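User: My collaborator sent over this chain with a note saying "see what the structure looks like." That's all I know about it. Can you take a look?
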Amino acid sequence: MNKNFFKKSILLSAALSITVIGSNPNSVLNFKNLEKTVITVHSNKTFSASEILYSAYLTNIYETANLYATGLNAEVFYKAVTGFYNLKKNAPVRDDSSIITIVDFNQPSHSKRMWIIDLQNANLLMNTWVAHGQGSGEDMPNQFSNIDSSHQSSLGFYLTGEIYLGKHGRSLRLDGMDASFNSNARQRDIVIHGADYVSQQMINSCGRLGRSFGCPAVAPELTASIINLIKDKTVLFINGPDSRYNSKYLDQDFAANYLFPEAEANVHGQLQAML
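Assistant: Without extra context I'll predict from the sequence alone. Here is the result:
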């Protein structure tokens, strides 16, 4: 099956409200398992072409980067990328960067629950441990706050800020983008920094990582690499078990149309050409 036929198949599938799994509009097209690329959705909902191609785009990155094998939940990944593209349009995200950092506090601290992903190349750059705040819980965080001195972690979308030298050494400031959930991050000095309590040794002795005052602290030996990868206005998403959390950046229709602004017209044109 050649590439042109594959593209036409996707467009035809869109017109018939079929979900396409495995396409990417940019540089990460995967044609190795084409028999698995198209599945029918048993639903009364009619999906737009942009929604279908967006779903395909997300799924292709998730599968190509082998994120399932590292424990990253697909729904969390989809939420994070949706926020990434909403922020691309509505916040000063660095234009030349396709890097996103995801932290999932649905997972315990002894798990490697931080992922740094290059979306453009569908490549997992790093998967490692990250600590949560003392006030958020023991091994499993279950309380989150935007309040100063709570020593709790804050959920939501962040942009990375400037590098500075503080009491934890080289650190990276964060700006919370979600009002009421993490908007006080800078005021609270919620930053990326290294900490000795983020280590296999700590897990072996305590059954969990040590905890911060609310910062997403990382292993000291990885701090420089992490900061260099994600500095200067890249997106960080911290997910967690809080039903109150909501964000204006989780607009999937907006993200789909941002990535595929001409999808509907292309489907119509392809169908006309194929008739």
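A starting point for your reply to your collaborator: The beta strands are 19-20, 38-39, 99-104, 114-118, 123-128, 156-166, 169-176, 191-192, 235-239.
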